[in-house]
Amino acid sequence: MKKKIAVIGLGEFGFALVKQLHHEGHEVIAIDKNMDVIEDAADVSTTAVCLDSTDEKAMIAQGLEDMDSVIIASAENLEVILVTSDILKRMGAKDIIVRYRNDLDVRILKMMGIDRVFNPEEKAALNMSEEFSHRSIRMSAIISDEYRIAEVILPGVFAGKTLQNSRLKEDYRLNVVTILRRQKGNRNQEKILGVPLAETILEENDTLILFGTHKDIDSFLEILE
Predict the structure, then answer these.
(1) Domains of the chain (ranges plus CATH)?
(2) Which of 23, 142, 208, 214 has the fewest Cβ atoms surrounding its Cβ within 10 A?
(3) What is the pLDDT of residues 15-58, one digit of tens each?
(4) Are 196 and 174 within 8 A, CB to CB?
(5) What does the alpha-carbon distance between residue 66 and residue 69 come to, in Å, rounded to a whole number?
(6) Are 20 and 44 in contact (CB under 8 A)?
(7) Number of other CB atoms surrounding residue 146 within 10 Å
């Protein structure tokens, strides 16, 4: 489902976020007070606006209350984050998502009624740490405080079984989103099998894209070690 999203603060992360959201087909408004950055963002967003997000009149003029989500993507200045968040709340913005630097930022934002907070560096560090910790895991992406997606190399014990007989859902509470399978004759290429069926036969060197809670994925990975 395509959405209307505003991204405020076009640092390295914010700019990359705008570019990716626009690439996925969303209507994206990019906002920053640096005109040079805005000129660059014009090519990778629906609309790029140069303004100071602490200027209430300028913010109101953008109609941000009509956006599905407004993301404050820069965490360099706490005062700017707080003032911008307050303006957005008083404007009636539906879904405010704010980047934080530390636990103090989170506590203050929660007191303001901002419940949707994120820290991309923290998630990246957790993902990389997990990849180093488990030999069977290729990639991990944290979805929320409770759930994540992981690319896991198929354990040999499951090779030759159907997805149903592997009992990944029944015994481990894990959902197989899809399967990556190496192409015969070219081991460097993989084919995405789409939504796997119960009768899909698992093969050696398959990679399973698993969805589940952190606890259930951790428990499964421990069994594989």
Answers:
(1) 4-118 (3.40.50.720), 123-224 (3.30.70.1450)
(2) 23
(3) 999 999 999 899 999 999 999 999 999 999 999 999 999 999 99
(4) no
(5) 9
(6) no
(7) 10
